[in-house]
Amino acid sequence: MQVELDPNVMPKIPGAKVAILQAKWYREPIDKMVQKTVDLLVAADCPKPEVHILPGSLELPLAAQALMRKEKYDAIICFGAIMQGETKHFDMIMNMCAEGFNNVMLEEGVPIIMEVIPIGNMDQLVARSQDNAFNKGVEAAIATAEIIDWRRRNLGT
Prior knowledge:
Elements: E1 18-23, H1 27-43, E2 50-54, H2 60-70, E3 75-83, H3 89-108, E4 112-119, H4 122-127, H5 136-155
Parallel strand pairs: 1-2, 1-3, 3-4
Helix pairs in contact: 1-5, 2-3
């Protein structure tokens, strides 16, 4: 079952505090994803999220935790790409990154929207950064708005 991603029906989240963390690798396509996310969140009445550039995807969970411990956030969105090479390095980094996000999210009680994409080649990343519904920024913005809205309605946060 495929879920329809329609930013026209995403909930409004006025006043939501959101940060975006971005790995510096593969900047051009990732920048397009981040910009799409920012545009859609602002359209949902969210103040413009602050964007932080980090050395790589592996550093994203630690940076997310540091931000959460510094200030109250409604959600943090993390963007990066990890390219599969000839060694097991890809698997190790991807697993450590995902486990790190999960641990931080559960420890701190703040949603992390993980858009760290495992790719086999640049074409796969470029395809997910075009100005269309397949841009991972659309998915990130919708997921962010939906989880913030859900938490506000059900948890009073």
